[in-house]
Amino acid sequence: LPGKSKTKENRQSIIHPDWNFEKMGIGGLDKEFSDIFRRAFASRVFPPEIVEQMGCKHVKGILLYGPPGCGKTLMARQIGKMLNAREPKVVNGPEILNKYVGESEANIRKLFADAEEEQRRLGANSGVHIIIFDEIDAICKQRGSMAGSTGVHDTVVNQLLSKIDGVEQLNNILVIGMTNRPDLIDEALLRPGRLEVKMEIGLPDEKGRFQILHIHTVRMREHQLLAEDVDIAELAVETKNFSGAELEGLVRAAQSTAMNRHIKASNKVEVDMEKAESLRVTRGDFFASLENDIKPAFGTNQEDYASYIMNGIIKWGDPVTRVLDDGELLVQQTKNSDRTPLVSVLLEGPPHSGKTALAAKIAEESNFPFIKICSPDKMIGFSETAKCQAMKKIFDDAYKSQLSCVVVDDIERLLDYVPIGPRFSNLVLQALLVLLKKAPPQGRKLLIIGTTSRKDVLQEMEMLNAFSTTIHVPNIATGEQLMEALELLGNFKDKERSTIAQNVKGKPVWIGIKKLLMLIEMSLQV
After folding, report:
1. Which distant-in-sequence residues (6+ apart) come within 8 Å of 93 by Cβ?
2. What is the 8-class DSSP label of residue 515?
3. Who has greater pLDDT, 11 or 41?
4. Which residues of 427-463 are buried (b: 16+ CB within 10 A; e: fewer)?
5. Is 360 helix (H, G, I), strand (E, B) or coil?
6. Phi and psi dihedrals of 132, rounded to 5?
7. How far is it, in rounded angstroms, from Cα 397 to Cα 447?
8. 302-474 topology per CATH
9. Which CATH architecture has domain 477-525?
10. What are the catalytic residues?
11. pLDDT tens across 300-313, in order?
């Protein structure tokens, strides 16, 4: 038919003819991009008449979600560049909102006006109109969730729903929404026909980190500004749980460190041009930046647990060694077992027996890329709801890492337990029980270490069943164990130690290691 040949003749390829998939500049997101291409663009590559014969409707929406700095905006930008279509309309969610009644909805309608007009003119041969919403959670919150509001958010959601998949359906649009809070978005927006392709852009794995670092150092490599001792593969191993933005920041920090070597700071700041020509970014620059400048948001804050073990671990006897050995076995189980992605252990014992220090030591020795301590001292003055939210955030962050360790310290204090009454926070208890039993997402592994001085209380609350195993941490119980501890601490002379040994020989002792350290320090002041 003449009309058919004309359609074929005029039809342009949806993919830009000069587009090179290898030079996209998106590191570590190959699988995600190929999944998006399969779901959202495969039907658009085929001629419209074939798509029409199949009765196939194009995917109209994609939701990219994940932690900040992992490449959501970059992915959307590259999709726009790849398509042989108009320049994408990029909108920040809050820009839609307007103080005047009806203006927010009008802003939504304006975004779709060009697509509507072109579809009326060209029908199936209309080009793709891409609309990118950054921070889409700002305008698409659950309807009815904002108490006391004027309902403006609800009407914006309604308007967006009707434009994407309303009565007058548009088949020439692609809406890309981006957020790091998918839980806030109205469910109606996420059903098929709207933002139906939901893609998590998570933290890159080792291969992804290698690609990202390679992309950000390629210019330096081309101009011989990268020293030969820089091994990108080594850096990829060392930067566990770094996001794409943090890896870019690491490269920037290393460049600044290298440049700083060639700046003369006397009365005035000037560049030593003779040495500047030999500027090279070295392995040392990268590792100095790794040590001092860039720390991953979903990583391990060493200061967090270093304060709990500032006096080291005093191995005063077999009980301490046994706790550390059992902890190491549980760490290995978490790393190696595919059947138990969630492993939890409760260290219980009398006060001052060193449970928190042992938990922090097990966590430190695990070398997991994500270690967080959930401690009541960070939640002083929190309401019950705020405590639950703080605990949930720690666990949600842990689920984003492939290997994580969460130390839940002093559980009875977290629960606001008071023996007079007795009283405790049931809301926090129920939240903690859910978090302790919830398995991490597929491919992620989590070790939880809890500590308590009131095993009997947790038994009554039926919390012991939430842990995989329980390990007892005793006090120093014999004179021999006390002498071993004093020898390891090294605060007393031989004569003083022998006097103490004579007094405690064969006698029962009952003292916690923390209490012993305090008594020793007090005696040294006399």
Report:
1. 133, 134, 135, 136, 137, 138, 139, 140
2. H
3. 41
4. ebbebbeebbeeebeeebbbbbbbbbbbbebbeebeb
5. helix
6. -110, 120
7. 13
8. Rossmann fold (3.40.50)
9. Orthogonal Bundle (1.10)
10. 355-356, 409-410, 437, 514
11. 777 677 788 888 89
Interacting residues of 39 by C-beta distance below 8 A, sequence separation 6+: 59, 62, 197
Amino acid type, 69: G
Structure tokens belonging to residue 51: 């798509």
Fold: same for 302-474 and 477-525 = no
> What DSSP string runs through 113-152?
HHHHHHHHHHGGGPPPEEEEEETGGGT-BPTT-STTS-SH
Tokens matching residue 113? 């006006």
Mean pLDDT across the chain = 85
In contact, 445 and 321? CB cutoff 8 Å:
no
Question: Structure tokens of 220?
Answer: 């330096």
DSSP letter (8 states) at residue 70: S
Give the type of residue at 183: D
Kindly state the tokens that stand for 178. 């981006």
With a CB cutoff of 8 Å and minimum separation 6, the contacts of 100 are none
Total length of the chain? 526
Q: Which two tokens stand for residue 143?
A: 């309807």
- Domain 206-292, classified CATH 1.10.8.60, yes or no: yes
Domain residue limits, the chain: 2-200, 206-292, 302-474, 477-525
Q: Which helix (H) or strand (E) holds 508?
A: strand 508-511
Distance CA 136, CA 154 (A): 13
Dump pLDDT digits (tens) for 400-447: 888 999 999 999 999 999 988 889 999 999 999 999 999 999 989 999
Tell me, letter by letter, the H, E, C secondary structure of 227-276.
CCCCCHHHHHHHCCCCCHHHHHHHHHHHHHHHHHCCEEECCCEEECHHHH
What residues contact residue 199 under an 8 Å CB cut-off, 6+ apart? 32, 35, 36, 62, 63, 64, 65
Q: Which residues pair with 176 in a beta bridge?
A: 62, 132
Residue with tokens 């909108």, as numbered in its chain: 91
**pTM for the predicted model, two decimal places:** 0.78
Pairing mode, if any, of strands 129-134 and 89-92? Answer: parallel
Its CATH class, for the domain covering 2-200, is alpha beta
